[in-house]
Amino acid sequence: MAITVQIPTALRRHTAGTSSIACAATNLDELFSALDEKFPELKPHLRDEAGQVRRFLNIYVNEEDIRFLGGPGYVFSDGDEVLLVPSIAGGAQ
Amino acid sequence: MSNYDGKSYSQAPYELRCRECGRSWGNQPRSICDECFSPLEVAYDYDVIRSSIAQGTFSRERIAQRPPNMWRYAELLPLPAGFEPRLPVGFTPLIQAPRLAEQLFGAQSDTKTTAQNLYLKNDAVCLPTLSFKDRVVAVALANAKAFGFDTVACSSTGNLANAVAAHAARLGLKAWIFIPSDLEPAKILGTQVFGANVVRIAGNYDQVNRLCSQIAEERRWGFVNVNLRPYYSEGSKTVGFEIAEQLGWRLPDNVVCPMAGGSLIIKIKKAFDELAKLGLVEEKAVKFFGAQATGCSPISTAVKTGSSEIEPQKPATIARSLAIGNPADGHYAIKTIKQSGGWSEDVSDPEVIDSIRLLAETEGIFTETAGGVTVGTAGKLYRQDRILPEETTVLCITGNGLKTTDVLAGVYEAERPIAPKLVEFEKYLQEKLDTVEVAQEAASVGA
Q: What is the pTM for the complete model shown?
């Protein structure tokens, strides 16, 4: 099984410019561990000291916010595309 | 820079700084800190502004002499050197609302003495596009020009779309506007008319927003609420500056503010803090109250459940301008509300419509759904004794009802036409009076 992870521009200096990687993670925890291993400098930018996903990092699976899919408990399917998107934009008032 | 009337004011140095780790990022089109992913905020050199105050070039009196628009507070806005305002945005009316107060206060108060304490900050008449979004866009596009963008863009629930399209037209910039496909027809038309490229996305605002974050990485466009966001959001402060000045350079006890992304309430607080820090108003603890629609209430839910974090929601409300299920500034809005001793409430869609009608019938202001949310929420807060009639309270009305007339479809019956004859009118009038009498009779029997 393989999923694809898209790395946002803001984090690419920690991935030697890599914008996308494939990995075999089955859930979010495994995905982060795989990223930690491949890009050690990325680690503190994804999770805080308590191991929680950073407040301003949104994670989408096939365009859906992972929190609507069960959050860390979501089990990836083959071919899933994971987007890491900084929580920057906001709208109205 | 110069004001709308061509007079020059001195600008204080400013730069982007991370809200969490404090790292400086200079001035550039960027909204997050690469170190910790946290949002960036514009930080000013307040000592320079204090010098302007000491020299008398930036004082209450000098501000009062300036033209009635938001540029009168230029010293406290991130405006690039050489910026020439092209539109007189802002300085909307702050009006007392005694007839609305009588309805909201109910029987709990002697409204004869307290009804003057309720104020409306009426951005339903903010120019040029009839919402408070004209303020933020004016500041964002000032910076877009300075950064050399020839194209500006935004994700929007409608009002921002209108504002970006209009201001871009005025400045000769190309505009790309991304909206959820179910937006109110008037807001779509009110964007297209300015010649903007409108992209309808089959998804909700949060999905549009996520897409724009991705597009912003690929194209050298000035996204007002993505890479220009720190500058853009500073424009909201002018609502706070104006409230203080229009109250006679004093702060209110309470502010009730609609919340979507959560930015406005934070920036009004920043405005009050800056005025107090600079000695332009007396320091005062202002309570901030957030208003949301129940069908999209991630911030008010967090406040009411005591959480400091946002649980995203799928929006399901007629208040589309507030339909942001994953508010970017939600965390900070919660903090602002809690630390001020305020609260947050939400109202159902029927309550939104009732509140739009109540505001129109009592004060002659036709607001959009967000204003209905604010008025409905204020009523709840009065009934809960979280806001007291004897306190000075400002409700922020942020948009115009002419943009969301579709929500009132079916509320009013189409009157049957009558022949242009006096006898016909007398007959019609009698029928009307009979109907009213029957209704009153039924009500008195029911009571």
A: 0.93
